[in-house]
């Protein structure tokens, strides 16, 4: 455990500059705007007062580094400004919507894990057979299919034709957890194909590598049952791979959620950021990007910690 | 094939004996590659047809992509309209062909931007090392922490909505992936004996990078670039679906799906053609990428 503790401190220390740079990227987005950002942000029919107000809000009249410092200081207190349209606080908007997105992302991760891991094991243990070929082809399909199109097809089949699931909408997980899961099922399935496909491939190739190792040959030679070799020695060694892949997919699922949420009219942060980008509601866009990147960085740290607990070699190497 | 796969050693052994060209790029024969890999040949043929359809669309498309016909809206496939018409009576096959141009342009632009930023940055930091490498690597980590579409949407929101801006944004979001690969490869090549030898002969830094490091480190990047084309294509479709990419009335596969979805209860058939176009194109890029991976490194096990 000593190694793990040291590893966590070191990784956390490495994450501080990454976090600072990420927040800077979010802040600097404003400067990509053509022309005077205050005028752009104020919209087409802005009064001179409104422009001055925005200039003061962002501190555009201050030196660059002061602007960033002030913005970061406010962000640390979860003050992300106000929506330019509804005038609601950005932090409130995000807090209201984040649970919907997190439900979809975790639901899709779980669906991807319960399908992808067994498929990967099956393909690896039947390597070269027709079943293996079928599974790997399915995985190729899984990474190439547009999630939002799959979403549309699922709506058409399961909601409109067979009326098994609601077509669109969402229920808050705090109000009625079962209904929330029911409503989230179709979008989560649409999101999960990538996770399934990538996990299948990675589990398959990691397991093949482990199973061809010398010590596995020794275990087999001394007469250990194949099932015991697989479960006790094979799978334990690919746990870190599974966790790392799941961590990366956590990031990519937010990407897909941006588009899939709008198919299912889920009021999550994904539809919030795309809607706000269309309407030039830039404080909201920045707020969502900031919250998501911080979330991803924290999850990356968690994955590293779990990995080093699972596999002491990881802790020793970093 | 099945038996060979069961024993990777035999596979690479016999493959190496049968096609020595695979391990020696100078003996590379395009036709031999195509014959040995049916999937890649299929993918390349499909992409060639797609490129031709996109280029020749103004000449061979049966209708104008923006010509509306209120008398024939959301039609089923007929002899006049092979794939039917959309909600404004525009010919779906025509819009599919024009959409191909936008899809390929988008994928090329995004990946081009990613290469132009990612490759030089990766080689440079890998080559010089030290604190510059340390700092830039943290920047790469930071950009990689953003969900790519979230970053692309945010940048598009700032730059202004439209296909070119959206794809510049996607390219920027992809660049760190290439930079990371390129950096790692540069580190490997930098340690090779022939680079030491070149340094011993007094080669300049520029000469080293251009003649030794870049050609030897670029191979995995070529594979990654091909695979990224598929991801960029999917990103374009998604962003156009949200109307952040291609703007109406221009045709895009993602945009067509958005319209088809609005009328899904009246004309469900309209949702298939653009979706399959996206799926097949992404599959083709991926198949090509995997094939190039095997071609460049025959010891790699096929996945």
Structural account:
The complex is a heterodimer of chains A (318) and B (303). Chain A is built from 13 helices and no strands. By secondary structure, chain A is mainly alpha-helical. Chain A has two domains: 123 residues, no CATH class; 181 residues, MetI-like fold (Orthogonal Bundle). Chain A is globular, with a radius of gyration of 24 Å. The two termini of chain A are 14 Å apart. With 303 residues, chain B is mainly alpha-helical. Chain B has 13 helices and no strands. The radius of gyration of chain B is 23 Å and the shape is elongated. The N terminus of chain B is likely disordered. Chains A and B meet through α1, α6, α7, α8 and α10 of A and α1, α6, α7, α11 and α12 of B.
Task: List descriptors.
heterodimer; A: 318 residues; mainly alpha; MetI-like fold; 2 domains; 13 helices; globular; B: 303 residues; disordered N terminus
In N-to-C order, the SSE pattern of chain B is HHHHHHHHHHHHH
Chain-averaged pLDDT of chain B: 86
Distance between the termini of chain A: 14 Å
**What is the CATH class of the largest domain in chain A?**
Mainly Alpha
Radius of gyration of chain A: 24 Å
> How many structural domains in the coordinates of chain A?
2
Indicate the radius of gyration of chain B in whole angstroms. 23 Å
Secondary-structure content class of chain A: mainly alpha
Q: Which residue ranges of chain A are poorly predicted, with pLDDT under 50 across at least 5 consecutive positions?
A: none
Approximate shape of chain A: globular
Shape of chain B, please? elongated
- Tally of DSSP helical segments of chain A: 13
Share of residues in helices of chain B: over 70%
Strand content of chain A: under 5%
- Tally of DSSP β-strands of chain B: 0
Oligomer: heterodimer
The major sheet of chain A is characterized as: none
**Which strand-content bin applies to the residues of chain B?**
under 5%
The helix content of chain A is over 70%
């Amino acid at each position: 455990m000593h190694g793990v503790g040291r590893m966590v401190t070191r990784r956390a220390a490495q994450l501080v500059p990454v976090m600072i740079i990420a927040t800077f990227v979010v802040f600097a987005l404003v400067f990509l705007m053509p022309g005077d950002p205050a005028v752009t942000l104020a919209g087409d029919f802005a009064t001179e007062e409104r422009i001055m107000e925005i200039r003061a809000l962002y501190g555009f009249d201050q030196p660059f580094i002061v602007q960033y410092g002030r913005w970061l200081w406010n962000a640390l207190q979860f003050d992300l400004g106000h929506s330019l349209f509804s005038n609601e606080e950005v932090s409130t908007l995000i807090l209201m919507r984040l649970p919907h997105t997190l439900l979809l992302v975790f639901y899709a991760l779980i669906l991807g894990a319960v399908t992808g891991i067994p498929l990967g094991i099956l393909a690896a243990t039947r390597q070269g057979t027709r079943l293996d070929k079928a599974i790997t082809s399915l995985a190729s399909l899984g990474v190439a299919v547009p999630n939002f199109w799959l979403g549309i097809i699922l709506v058409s089949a399961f909601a409109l034709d067979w009326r098994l699931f609601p077509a669109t909408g969402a229920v808050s997980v705090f109000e009625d957890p079962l209904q929330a899961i029911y409503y989230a099922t179709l979008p989560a399935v649409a999101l999960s194909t990538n996770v399934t496909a990538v996990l299948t491939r990675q589990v398959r190739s990691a397991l093949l590598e482990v199973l061809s190792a010398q010590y596995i040959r020794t275990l087999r030679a001394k007469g250990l049952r194949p099932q015991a070799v697989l479960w006790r020695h094979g799978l334990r060694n690919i746990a870190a791979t599974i966790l790392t892949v799941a961590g990366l997919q956590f990031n990519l699922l937010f990407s897909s959620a941006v588009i899939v949420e709008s198919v299912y009219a889920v009021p999550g942060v994904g539809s919030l950021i795309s809607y706000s980008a269309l309407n030039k509601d830039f404080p909201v866009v920045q707020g969502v990007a900031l919250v998501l990147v911080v979330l991803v960085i924290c999850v990356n740290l968690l994955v590293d910690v779990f990995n080093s607990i699972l596999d002491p070699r990881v802790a020793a190497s970093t | 094939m099945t038996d060979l796969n069961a024993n990777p050693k035999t596979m690479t052994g016999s493959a190496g004996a049968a096609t020595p060209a695979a391990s020696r790029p100078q003996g590379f024969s395009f036709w031999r590659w195509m014959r040995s890999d049916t999937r890649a040949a299929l993918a390349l043929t499909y992409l060639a047809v797609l490129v031709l359809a996109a280029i020749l669309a103004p000449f061979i498309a049966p209708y104008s992509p923006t010509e509306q016909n209120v008398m024939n809206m959301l039609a089923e496939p007929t002899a006049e309209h092979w794939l039917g018409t959309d909600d404004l009576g525009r010919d779906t096959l025509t819009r599919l062909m024009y959409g191909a141009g936008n899809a390929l342009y988008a994928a090329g632009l995004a990946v081009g931007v990613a290469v132009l930023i990612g490759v030089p940055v990766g080689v440079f930091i890998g080559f010089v090392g030290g604190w510059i490498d340390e700092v830039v690597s943290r920047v790469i980590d930071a950009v990689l922490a953003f969900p790519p579409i979230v970053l692309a949407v945010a940048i598009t929101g700032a730059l202004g909505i439209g296909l070119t801006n959206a794809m510049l944004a996607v390219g920027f979001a992809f660049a760190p992936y290439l930079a990371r690969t390129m950096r790692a490869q540069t580190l490997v090549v930098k340690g090779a004996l022939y680079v030491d030898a070149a340094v011993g002969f007094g080669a300049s830094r520029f000469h080293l990078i251009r003649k030794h490091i870049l050609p030897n480190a670029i191979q995995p990047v070529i594979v990654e670039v091909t695979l990224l084309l598929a991801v960029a294509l999917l990103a374009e479709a998604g962003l156009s679906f949200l109307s952040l990419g291609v703007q109406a009335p221009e045709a895009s596969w993602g945009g067509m799906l958005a319209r088809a979805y609005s009328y899904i209860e009246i004309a469900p058939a309209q949702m298939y053609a653009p979706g399959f176009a996206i799926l097949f194109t992404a599959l083709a890029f991926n198949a090509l990428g995997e094939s190039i991976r095997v071609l460049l490194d025959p010891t790699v096990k096929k996945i």
